Amino acid sequence: MCLEQLFRASELIALMALSTTFFLFLHTRDLNTRLREMEVKLQPEDILTANQIVSGDSAPATATRVKTMMKLLQSTGKFQMTSLEPYQLNNTKKAKRDILFFNRVPKVGSQTFMELLRLLSMRNEFEFHQDRVQRVETIRLAPEDQASLAAMVQSYDEPSVYIKHVCFTNFSEFDIPEPIYVNLVRDPIERVISWYYYVRAPWYYVERKIAFPDIPLPDPKWLKKDFEHCVLSGDRECRYIKGETREGIGDHRRQSMFFCGHHEDCTPFNTDIALQKAKQAVDQHYAVVGVLEDLNMTLKVLEHYIPKFFEGATDVYYNEIKRYNTINRNMYKPPVSEEVKDIVRQNFTKEIEFYEFCKQRLQKQYYALKLPDKR
After folding, report:
1. 198 and 107 in contact (C-beta within 8 Å)?
2. Are the C-beta atoms of residues 303 and 311 closer than 8 Å to each other?
3. Is 252 a catalytic residue?
4. What is the pLDDT of residue 243?
5. Which DSSP symbol is given to 292?
6. How confident is the model at residue 263 (pLDDT cuts 50, 70, 90)?
7. Contact present, 248 and 136 (Cβ < 8 Å)
8. What is the mean pLDDT of residues 208-223?
9. Residue-wise over 101-129: b if at least 16 C-beta within 10 A, else e?
10. Residue 287 dihedral angles phi and psi, to the nearest 5°
11. Which range, 41-50, 193-202, 304-313, is most confident?
C-alpha cells in the first residue's frame, strides 16, 4: 500500500512538472512573439516611412541617417514609442504668459519662419513684433541689457510674438515670467556655408547701404573669396579653431551659441561646456526647436504643441509662402564639395552633436503625437 501511494505521488509530481513545463513553454512563446512585434515596430524602415509621411515633397532621409537617429534615440534610455506622451515633452506649459519669443538663429530659414508668424498673426489674432534692423547686431548682452529685453517683451499684450537675433535669455533670472521659447536649427556645415556667402551677396550690402548710408563697402577681394579656397588655403576666416573666441557680428560660426546664452563660457568655439549649456536650455526652456531639414515635421509639432500661435501653419506655409515667395534665397552661393565639407566637419564636432540632439528631441515630440498613418 505504501509503495502504491508512493507510485501515485510520483505520477502526480511528474504530471505537475509536465504541466509547469508546458505552461512555461506557452508563456515563453507568447513573450517571444510580443518581443518580435516590438522589434518590428522599432525597425528603422518603419521610421523612414514615418519620416516620408511628414516630408511632403522634401527629399526623404537616407536609411543610414535613419538608423543613426534610431540608435541615438534608443541610447537616451527614454525612447519608447508606446509610452511617449506630448505633455511630457512640451515646455509650453512652463510659460507664464502667452508671449512667443523667437530668438532666431541666422541662416536656418528664420526669415521664412518670421514671415510665417506674420501671416499667422492675422489668422490666429496675436500681435507681431520684431526687432528693428541694427547697424551692429550684438547677440550677447550684458545682464542689464538682458533685463531690459525681458522687461520689454513682458510689456506686450497677450497673445504676442517677439522676434530678435539674440542669445537665449532666461527671463526668470530677472524675476520676469517666462515666455514660450521657440527656435530653428540647421545642419551646421550647410549653415556656415550659407552664412559665408550670405554676407558676400550683393543685395545684402545694398540693403545695408540703404539702412546705413555711411557704412563702407568691403574689399572686393574679400567679396570674391571662394569658400572652398578659403578652407583649403587655411585662411583664418575658415579655420574654425577649437576654443577660439570671436566677438561681434563676425561670430556666426555656430548656432549652439543662440541656445547656450550670454555667459562667457558660451563664447569659445566647439567646447563641451557650451554644448552642455545649450542642450540644457533646449531641454528645460524651449517648447519647440524646429529643424530646417525636417520642416514638415517641425510644422506638425508646432501646430500641436503651440496651437494658439501655430494653428494652420502647414496650410499657410504651403499655400501662402512656399508657392509665391523665395525669401533670402541666395543665387550667388556655388556648390561646395563633400571633401571640403568633411574637412570642416572635423572641427564642428560639438555643433554636429547639438544639431543631432535637437533632431532627436523633435522626433520624440512628433512620435508622441501618435498621428494617424495617412499612407
Report:
1. yes
2. yes
3. no
4. 81
5. G
6. very high
7. yes
8. 86
9. bbbbbbbbbbebbbbbbebbbeebebebe
10. -70, -50
11. 304-313
The distance of Cα 357 from the centroid of its chain, to the nearest Å, equals 8
Instruction: State the Cα–Cα distance between residues 229 and 169, nearest whole angstrom.
Output: 37
SS3 content of the chain, % helix, strand, coil (to 5): 60, 5, 35
Q: Which of 48, 50, 59, 69 is nearest to 356 (CA)?
A: 69
The pLDDT score that the predictor gives to residue 274 is 94
Asked if 267 contacts 250 with a C-beta cutoff of 8 angstroms, the reply is no
CA–CA gap between residue 373 and residue 375 (Å, rounded): 6
What's the one-letter identity of residue 16? M
Phi, psi of 285 (to 5 degrees): -120, -35
Cell of 263: 555667459
pLDDT at 58: 40
Measured between alpha carbons, how far is residue 240 from residues 118, 228, 246, 252, 270 in Å?
Answer: 35, 14, 10, 11, 9
Place of cell 515596430: 41
**Rounded CA separation 118/317 (Å):** 11
Catalytic residue among 27, 129, 165, 304: 165
Please state, in angstroms and rounded to a whole number, the distance separating the CA atoms of residues 74 and 80: 8
Can you give the pLDDT at residue 333? 82
Rounded-to-integer distance, Cα 71 and Cα 76, Å: 9
CA dist., res. 215 & res. 211, Å (int): 9
Residue 47 buriedness (CB in 10 A; 0-12 / 13-18 / 19+): buried
Whether residue 5 is predicted with pLDDT greater than 70 in this model: the reply is no
Neighbours of 312 (CB within 10 A): 15
Q: What ranges in the chain are assigned the alpha helix state H?
A: 2-41, 44-55, 63-75, 110-124, 143-154, 188-198, 202-211, 220-224, 227-232, 257-260, 272-285, 295-305, 307-310, 313-316, 338-345, 349-369
Beta bridge partners of 162: 101, 129
Contact 205, 217 (CB under 8 A): yes
Average pLDDT over residues 182-207: 91
Which position has the higher pLDDT, 347 or 35?
347
From residue 195, alpha-carbon distances to 124, 183, 250, 253, 357 in Å are: 32, 17, 10, 8, 22
